[in-house]
Amino acid sequence: MKKFIFILSLLAFTAMVSGAKPASLRAYLSHAAFQSPESGPFIETYLSILGSSVAYTRNDNGKFQGTILVTMLFKQNDSIKEYRKYDLKTAEIEDTTQINFIVFDQQRVPLREGKYDLELQLSDKNREMQPFNAKDIIDITFDNSKISLSDLELVDSYSKASETSLLAKSGYDFIPYQDNYYPKNTNKVNFYGEIYNTAAILGNESQFVVASFIQSVETGKPIENFFRLRREIASHVNVVFSEFDISELPSGNYNLVLSVRDKENKEISSRSVFIQRSNPGIKFNTGSLQQVMVDNTFASLMKNTDTLREYIRMGFPVASASEKLFINFNVAGGDLKMLQQFFFNFWVQRNQANPEGAWKNYFNLVLGVEKEFGSIYKKGYETDRGRVYLQYGSPNQRNVETLNPWTFPYEIWHYYTANQQSNLKFVFYTRDRALNDYILAHSNALGEVKNVNWQYEIKRLPAGSKDTDKELYKEAYDEDQFGEHTGDYYNLRR
Fold this sequence. Notes:
- Helices cover 16% and strands 38% of the residues.
- By secondary structure, it is of the alpha+beta class.
- It has three domains: 13-277, Immunoglobulins (Immunoglobulin-like, Sandwich); 286-373; 385-491, no CATH class.
- Strands 11, 12, 13, 14, 16 and 19 form a six-stranded antiparallel β-sheet that branches. A five-stranded mixed β-sheet has the order 15-21-20-17-18.
- A hairpin with a 2-residue loop joins strand 6 and strand 7 (79-89).
- It starts with 12 loop residues before the first strand and ends with a helix.
């Protein structure tokens, strides 16, 4: 995160470690790949630990301080290529009853291009507990024969750098935004990125265009009023630092995109980072539908208001954040003309050349989902499995377990690639198979439910027990039974 660095993809995970007293250790790690013209590629890691989850003891100064032993391994084929091992100390404090700070640490690790397994271990040195272990995958790719971009870095705050430091780049000190979730009281997205090789590819002093925008995950299209262009002069490294006001951005899943384009506005290269927005209270702008002409379209033939409302609700699994606002708050009271306009525009957004064909194909999928996943209380597209099927498509592999005495009935779905992501996994389970309503317990897909304890979630406990402690019920969680298939099914990689 020094000079010309930005987070390309916030490949981040939340680490929660079960603990008794004090509170369980809670940590968050993200990382970003950058390239230095002088020294080559490197990774920056950003580790945040909730201060209140750390154990404290008095130090030689008579104050309270916590210490976390951090170990990071960067491996290829089980061979350690780089590592970091160090004590991360908290600030010294007088009172441990009011702890409201985050312990932040940043490391810079030079690595050659390629894929690495990142292994993180955290140990609280003032508490007897098993170390926390987590893994992630790093992919460093910079093609010097083409224009390339760094990872995009979400920035919490910045200030003019007074001196050279690890946190400084392009003359500023940046504090990373340690999440991809933006609650209602956070109304700005700041981001930083770097563009490499424009001078070598386009020629010195050549002009090119940089577009930055917020894109709907569902439709892949930029959100209106969240798009901007700027002209740049080719250089060895071009720095992009900008922000969006998201006070009017509806709740939903988005990609923040940085796109490099030539003088004809043709895209050369791009990078994106996923963000989630929670912004209750934002309403759908029904005025935007007034210009939608539906005369002589397939939507104009739909005259039954109740049927049209149901057709619109069927689209919820693939709807954008703005479209979901309409479905939730405007469908019930909308008149026939408004419903026709919304329905037609919905499918035009997905296939401008043949919106009717897009609708018919989707409707056939909904019928199949109803037959396969419909339950007594829910329609197929309203269930978790039905929604995932419609949103991501048919899984490449579907493992179904209904007879394991140690688990509730569960399914684990694998997608090799879907929605511009790879190796996606979804875990569903039900406590009552007769209802056919499986709940999504965990997924590694962006924007989905994440539960690191999902294996415990789907386990049957001894009768009358409410405790999930593995030591108390060792027999029930014996690895031969507890992990016989769940881990194998989930960890199977394609």
